[in-house]
Write a structure and sequence with these properties.
The complex is a heterodimer of chains A (277) and B (304).
Chain A (H helix, E strand, L loop, with lengths): L3 H31 L4 H6 L11 H7 L2 H34 L5 H10 L5 H14 L6 H25 L3 H9 L4 H12 L1 H17 L2 H6 L8 H11 L4 H30 L7
Chain B lengths: L1 H36 L2 E2 L8 E2 L3 H7 L2 H32 L6 H13 L2 H11 L6 H8 L16 H26 L3 H9 L4 H12 L1 H16 L3 H6 L11 H11 L3 H26 L1 H5 L1 H8 L1
Antiparallel strand pairs in B: 1-2
Helix pairs in contact in B: 3-7, 3-10, 4-7, 7-10, 10-13, 12-13
The chains are: A mainly alpha (277), B mainly alpha (304).
Chain lengths: 277, 304
């Protein structure tokens, strides 16, 4: 089977994948190790291990209240966004999946087209709106718009999952005297755990990484999330490369840990729909 | 019967109202307001009163920065189609073969996707920093000498540096998409092709590629839509500079709206972003993705 040409090709692909893998890993390792160096080492010894290891930049960041406050803000906002978008989205998806009424598809299409609304387009009017509603420098000013823009993908994924649950289950539940609310809470949601996991992971990552919305909503640094904090840290210590690398590394850790834990849901969510047709 | 129907309607209202309220207030309303205020000269305070009709849009056409935004967006799209996506495809084909460490590669390739654009951009600001950055140390190491290159501060190189960082973050996403599509192709097809003597390249060209068409078209769609709306990465990496040479549509919108308070003008830019996305999205779905919605059989019939 292995013709020489084929071997060459697979060899080339191997080299390519190792090169690309290195291109991914080297910047991250540069960040992690760079945080343990001082700026002189970064200049004289860019590739080697730190000599000596200087943990000062990491300990300084870890003992600064700002870092922990930003991490807490990011986490609170991500959790609240996820709970709301999944809750509200699941309710709507339940109706779209299980009830027939005139205009249903039209309303669903409005949500589906929402997928193509770029968030950047809404920024200015959203800012004006949030200012009128006194939601600037208020976590709700970030949470609620995130929920609104997260609804389309949540509803689309959940609706198709809810539809795949056999109607017989609902019929027998109704025969047992189960109302729509009880059916939704006690039967449908528990049966939909995989899909709920997928949309939750998408919502958490989206909220955790959001930048533009917190940027326009939070002026007061006490509300800053990690992306805002990292960017501010960079402009504040722009000449102190090692110090910034330590801070960026610490900001990367939660994402990478979360990825390691939720890899399956994340990839499942992003590739849902591919390969079915 | 009437009572049951009334109960059904109240269930529908109860479950649907929260989503409709939030979506209507925070997605649809801002879209309408953006469209409305794009016809005014307005600083964002009070109500817009100074109606200028299509004036903002006419100004856009002769605004060098805006026209440059369009050109730069096109450049990034072309670079993605010619370099980023083909590399992603090649890697997906590799990861589909039995290969030692395949799972590890997959995890590594995809990892940057979970990092925020801001964290990525700050990390690469350090890497491209002229003195202590990794990039210049690397060029020295491979014998290019001390280029002393200012990757992000030079109008000639900034877009390519930007493209590199975008690819770094996003190619893994496309690799994962292709891999999922590739794994959905029944193994029998490749076995039959091998029996007929179709080797690696032929099998790829005549079986894998056509059957992967749907996935590729979706990946192209997502890549282009993402590029049109690019903001975070550029804003943190370059701020649109040097001398506004790396601005994108969203960055120009942000500059005009939030830094110079030309809210009407900025709204016109955001309407352009919206219209480009929408037109592209609808045309693409109508003419390119349509075949995927019709199913594989008609596709075969079409190609004949």
């Amino acid at each position: 089977m292995s013709t020489p040409a084929r071997l060459t090709r697979s060899g080339l692909l191997h080299v390519l994948s190792i090169l690309v893998g290195a291109a991914i890993v080297v910047p991250i390792v540069f960040g992690v190790l760079g945080g343990f160096k001082d700026n002189g080492q970064l200049f004289n010894n860019p590739f080697g291990l730190p000599k000596p290891w200087v943990p000062g930049n990491y300990t300084a960041a870890l003992s600064s209240p700002a870092f922990w406050r930003q991490a807490t803000n990011s986490l609170t906002i991500a959790v609240a966004t996820t709970a709301l978008v999944v809750g509200v989205g699941a309710m709507a998806a339940f109706i779209f999946a299980r009830y027939a009424f005139p205009g249903r598809e039209a309303v669903f299409t409005v949500f589906a087209i929402g997928l193509m609304f770029p968030f950047a387009v809404a920024t200015l009017p959203l800012f004006v709106l949030l200012r009128t509603m006194k939601l600037l420098d208020n976590p709700l000013g970030v949470i609620l718009p995130q929920v609104a823009f997260g609804l389309p993908i949540t509803i689309i994924i959940l609706r198709s999952f809810f539809r795949s649950i056999p109607a017989e289950i609902e019929e027998s539940a109704v025969l047992d005297g189960c109302g729509p609310l009880r059916f939704f809470l006690r039967i449908l949601l528990p049966m939909s755990r995989p899909a709920l996991g997928t949309v939750s992971v998408l919502a958490i990552v989206g909220s955790w990484n959001n930048y533009l919305l917190p940027l326009i909503v939070f002026n007061d640094s006490k509300w800053w999330t990690l992306p805002l904090g990292v960017q501010q840290f960079q402009s504040q210590y722009s000449s102190d490369t090692a110090r910034i690398l330590a801070y960026v590394t610490l900001a990367m850790v939660p994402s990478l840990v979360f990825y390691a834990v939720a890899e399956r849901q994340l990839i499942g969510g992003l590739t849902s729909g591919i390969g079915k047709g | 019967m009437v009572r049951r129907r009334r109960r059904t309607w109240s269930t529908i209202a109860l479950f649907l109202t929260p989503a409709l309220l939030i979506f209507g207030l925070l997605v649809l309303t801002p879209m309408v307001v953006a469209a409305y205020s794009s016809f005014f000269s307005w600083n964002g305070f009070g109500a817009p009163t100074d109606f200028v009709g299509l004036g903002n849009f006419r100004r856009l056409l002769v605004d060098d920065i805006f026209v440059g935004d369009l050109e730069r967006t096109l450049l990034l799209i072309v670079l993605s189609m010619v370099i980023q996506l083909p590399v992603a495809l090649a890697l997906a084909m590799l990861l589909n073969q039995p290969l030692r460490g395949r799972r590890l590669y997959r995890m590594v390739f995809f990892a940057p996707y979970v990092l925020s654009e801001v964290v990525t951009a700050v990390l690469f600001t350090m890497i491209f920093s002229p003195n202590q950055g990794l990039a210049n140390h690397l060029t020295r190491l491979v014998g290019l000498g001390d280029l002393g290159a200012t990757w992000l501060a030079d109008t000639d190189t900034v877009m390519y540096s930007l493209f590199f960082v975008i690819s770094w973050k996003y190619f893994g996403f496309h690799t994962i998409l292709y891999l999922a599509g590739r794994q959905a192709i029944p193994q029998e097809l490749h076995e039959a092709a091998a029996l007929d003597g179709a080797g690696g390249w032929n099998a790829f060209r005549h079986i894998t590629l056509p059957l992967l068409g749907g996935t590729i078209r979706i990946s192209v769609f997502l890549s282009i839509l993402g590029t049109i709306q690019l903001f975070d990465m550029v804003w943190v990496l370059t701020g649109g500079g040097p001398i506004r040479s790396s601005e994108t549509l969203a960055v120009t919108m942000f500059q005009e709206g939030f830094k110079r308070f030309h809210v009407g003008y900025a709204s016109a830019i955001s309407m352009v972003i919206f219209l480009i996305s929408l037109t592209f999205g609808l045309l693409y779905q109508r003419f390119v993705l349509r075949r995927d919605l019709e199913g594989a059989v008609t596709t075969m019939g079409d190609q004949r």
